[in-house]
Amino acid sequence: MLRIYQNTYRRTARKAVVYSTKVACCNHSTLCNITSQSRRSGAGAHWEQHSKRNNRSHEEFLLGGNQARGWTIPPHSRGYGMFVVRILKGALKLRYIVLGGAIGGGVSLSKKYEDWKEGLPDLKWLEDALPQGERWSQFSRNLIEVGSVVKNAIDIDPRLKQLGEDKMSEWRSWFDNRLDDAIEAADYQGTQIVETKEDIKAKTTVAALGIPADESRKKYDKLQSQVETLQTEIMNVQIKYQKELEKMEKENRELRQQYLILKTNKKTTAKKIKKSLIDMYSEVLDELSGYDTGYTMADHLPRVVVVGDQSSGKTSVLESIAKARIFPRGSGEMMTRAPVKVTLAEGPYHVAQFRDSDREYDLTKESDLADLRREVEFRMRASVRGGKTVSNEVIAMTVKGPGLQRMVLVDLPGIISTMTVDMASDTKDSIHQMTKHYMSNPNAIILCIQDGSVDAERSNVTDLVMQCDPLGRRTIFVLTKVDLAEELADPERIRKILSGKLFPMKALGYYAVVTGRGRKDDSIDAIRQYEEDFFKNSKLFHRRGVIMPHQVTSRNLSLAVSDRFWKMVRETIEQQADAFKATRFNLETEWKNNFPRLRESGRDELFDKAKGEILDEVVTLSQISAKKWDDALTAKLWEKLSNYVFENVYLPAAQSGSQNSFNTMVDIKLRQWAEQALPAKSVEAGWEALQQEFISLMERAKKAHDHDNVFDQLKSAVVDEAIRRHSWEDKAIDMLRVIQLNTLEDRFVHDKTEWDQAVKFLENSVTNKLEQTDETLSQMFGPGPWSRLAHWQSLTQDQQKRRSVKGELDKILKNDVKHLPTLSYDELTTVRKNLQRDNVEVDTDYIRQTWFPVYRKHFLQQSLQRAKDCRKAYYLYTQQGTECEISCSDVVLFWRIQQVIKVTGNALRQQVINREARRLDKEIKAVLDEFSDDEEKKAHLLTGKRVQLAEELIKVRQIQEKLEEFINSLNQEK
C-alpha cells in the first residue's frame, strides 16, 4: 500500500512540474524541444557538462523569451510565481484523496497492478538507454531547478489567479469538514461499542444472579445426565471400533498366511505350539466363566481370590506378585469395578496380554504400562451398564515374566461399609454377593487382605471370610501397610494379628507386606527394595521367635500362594474332570431322546446358516422379472395416490359446473401436486413395494418343506433392522418431479387403445370408491330388510334417524340430479321441518353428516354412467376436442393420471433393479456383521430348548476336552 501511495505521489509531482512548464512555454512543441534535449544527451563522462550547458540554455531561453513566437517574460514577476507554488501545493493536497482510495481498494488495486505488470512488454533495454545512479539524481536536480526558474519568472492573469485561489480554498474547507466528520463518527462508534459491552455485562450479571437454586440444580442434573449419555456412547463406539480393528487384524493375518502358502506353493502343516500348564488351566477357567447350565453343576476349580476392604491394598498386593503396576489407581475412589482374572506365568519377557486381544504390552516400558492401565479402566467402565456401579463380567489377562510364580488370581471390588451419592443403590449388596460367590467355591484359595494402618475393629472382610471358610483351611491372611502400622499401632497388637490371636477367623498362614511408600510414580523394584529394607530394620520384625522370616515380604507371599494353589489343583482336578464327564453323558443322552435326527448346532453355526438363507433371498429379490415389478409398483402407486386424486382433484373440479373450468382447475391442481407432494409420495410407494416384495419372499421361504423355524426370529430382526436403516436416494425425488411434470403437460389421448384403458381405469376406480361408500352407508344406516330377517338383527335408534334423513335427502337429489355438493340453508330448514312432522328431531350438523356419503354415492354413480357413455365416444372426442357434446373430461383426467403412474412405475422399477436392491443388500450384510459380533443379540434371537441344549453340550465338551488335556500334561510334569 505504501509503495502504491509513493508511486501516485511521484506521478502527481511530475504532472505538476510538466504543467508549470507548459504554462511557461505556452507551446507544446517548444516544451518538447526543451525536455528532449536533455534526454538525447549522451552517456558517459559528457553527461554532466552537457547537463550544465542545457540548464544555462534553458534559463536564457526562458528569461529572454521567444521573439519569434511573439511573447516575452516581463521582469519583476515573483508575485505571480508564488501563485504557481500555491497551485502546486493545492494539487499536492490530492494525495489525501489518493491515500484514501488506495486504502479502500488496496487489495483489488494490487491485483490489477500485478495483472498490468505481467502484460507489459519487456523493457530491459531501457536500462542501458536511461541514466543510472548519480546521473539520474543529477537529472532530477536539474528538473527541480527548471521548476524554480519557472515559478519566479511566470506571469499570470489576475482573474485566473483569483479563480484558482477561490477554488483551492473551497477544496481545503471541504476536505477539512470531511476529515472532522470522519473523526467524530469514529469516536461516536467507539463510545457506543463500549456502552453496549457494559450493558451486556450488566444484563448478564443480573440474569446470573436471578437464577433460582432449584433451577440451577435441575440444569446441572440435566447436563450431568447428558455427559453420562455421551460417555456411554463414546464407550460403545470405542468398543465397536476395537472389535472391528481386531477383526481386521485377524483377517490380515489369515490373508498373509494364505499369501505365503500360495507364494511357496507348498502344503505347509501348522505346527502345534506347546502351551504351558498355567496357560492350559487358564483356558479352562475362561471356558467355565461363560458356562451357564440348568444342572446342579458348579465351577469348583481352584483359583486365588483376592478379597479385602476398599483401599486396603488388594490391587497393590497383586501388582507386587505380578511385578508390574498394571492397574489404574485412584485417591480413595473405587477403581476395581469388575472381577479381573490375572494368569501369572513364567516367561523370558515381561509382557501382558488380554484374552480377547492379540496385542502384547511390554511391562518394561512406561508407555505400554500407561496404555495397559487405560485399557483396564476402559474395560471396567464399559462392563458397567444400566446405571450400575460394579459388574460381574470377568476381565481376563495374562502376565508373563522372569521369576513369576504360576497361578491364577482374581481381583474383586473392595468391600464397602458406606455408599456415596454417585453409587447405585445396590452397590454394597452386589459387592457382598460377588465376593461370597467366589469364596463359596470349596477349592478357591482366599487371599484375605487387611489394612494394617487402620483399627482391626473396622474390618469388614474378616467376617465374610469367616462365614465362607470357618476352619481356615484355604485362607491366607495378608497384613498390608505395616510400615505405617509401626508408627500408628501398638506393636503387641500387630504381633497378635500376625499370630492369628486377634481376629476370630482362622487361616493357613499369616503374612506381612509393604505395598509402597505412598508415591504413585514408584516402580515395583523400588517398592520391593523399600520393603526388604524396612523388614531388615524394623523393630517389630527384628526379634527372633516372634515373627518368622518367611512370613514377611511379597516374594515369600507369592511363593506360598503358588505352592498352595498347585497343591489344591492336583488334589481336585480329577474330581472336576469326572463331574464334567458325567454331565456330558447326561446331555448327550437328552439330545438323542429329543432330537435324534439333528446334529448339535450351536448359535454360531445356526447364525451362519440363517445368514446364508437371508442372503439367498436377497439374490432372489434381484431376479424378479420386470413385469412383476411393474405390476407391484403400479398397484402400490395407485393405492397411495387414489385418495388424493378423488378428494383433492376430481371431486373439487367436478363441482366447478362447466367443462372448461373443470379442465382449468384440474391443470392447476395437478401441477401443484406434481411440484410438491407427488414425487415424495411416489418414492414412498416404491420403497413400500420393495419392502413388501422382500417380505413376501421371506414368507414364501417359510412355507418350504425344509424350513427350520429356529431362524424365524433372527431373520425377522435382521430384515426389520435393515429396512429401518435403508432409505431411498434423495436425487430420485428431483428426477421424478421432472418426469411427472412433463407427462402431465400432455392433455390429449392419442389412440383408441389408450382411451379404452383410461375408461376402464376410471370405471374400476369409481367402482372401488362406490364399494367403500356403500360400506360407510351400511354402517351408518344399518343392514337391509333381508339381512335383518336372515340374521335376526334390528336397527338402532340412530340408524333409524339416519334412514329418515336419507329419505328426505334422496328427494332433493331426485328433483335436482345436478345438485351442488353442499346444501343451502333453505334446504336444511326444509329437511329439518319435514322430519319434525314425523317426530324426528335432528340438527343441521346431523343432516350435513348424513348428506356427505349420500351425495358422494350419487356423484360416483353419475361418474360411472359418464364413463360408460364415453366408452364409444373416442372418435367424437378426436374431432371436437374439449367442445365435445359428451363430457369426457373425467376420462382425460384419469388418462393423465394413468400415464403418470406408468412413467413413475417405470422409473421406480429401474431405480429398484439398478440401485435400491443393491443398497438393501449392503444394509442387510452390515446388520448381519453387527449381529454376528453381538453374543447377547444372538442369544436373544436364537432361543428354544434345542438351541440351549446344543450350546450346553458343546460347551461341556470343550471344557472336558481341555481338562483332559491339562491332566495329561500335569501327569507328565510329575
Give a description of the structure.
This protein is mainly alpha-helical and 974 residues long. 67% of the residues lie in helices and 5% in strands. It is built from 34 helices and nine strands. Strands 4-3-5-2-6-1-7-8-9 form a nine-stranded mixed β-sheet, sandwiched between helices.
Number of strands: 9
Radius of gyration: 51 Å
Q: Report on the biggest sheet.
A: 9 strands, mixed
Q: Give the end-to-end Cα distance, rounded to a whole number of Å.
A: 93 Å
Helical fraction equals 55-70%
Instruction: Please state the overall shape, judged from the principal axes of the Cα atoms.
Output: extended
- Average residue-wise pLDDT: 76
Instruction: Give unreliable regions as ranges.
Output: 1-6, 12-78, 188-211, 266-272, 293-297
The SS-based structural class is mainly alpha
SSE diagram, text form:
Blueprint: H1 2-25, H2 28-39, H3 47-64, H4 78-92, H5 94-104, H6 106-119, H7 125-129, H8 134-153, H9 158-209, H10 213-264, H11 277-289, E1 304-308, H12 314-322, E2 340-346, E3 351-354, E4 361-362, H13 366-383, E5 395-401, E6 407-411, H14 427-439, E7 445-451, H15 461-468, E8 475-480, H16 482-488, H17 491-498, E9 509-512, H18 524-537, H19 554-594, H20 603-622, H21 626-654, H22 659-675, H23 678-702, H24 712-725, H25 731-744, H26 752-781, H27 785-791, H28 797-815, H29 825-837, H30 844-870, H31 874-880, H32 889-933, H33 935-941, H34 945-973
Parallel strand pairs: 1-6, 1-7, 2-5, 7-8, 8-9
Antiparallel strand pairs: 2-6, 3-4, 3-5
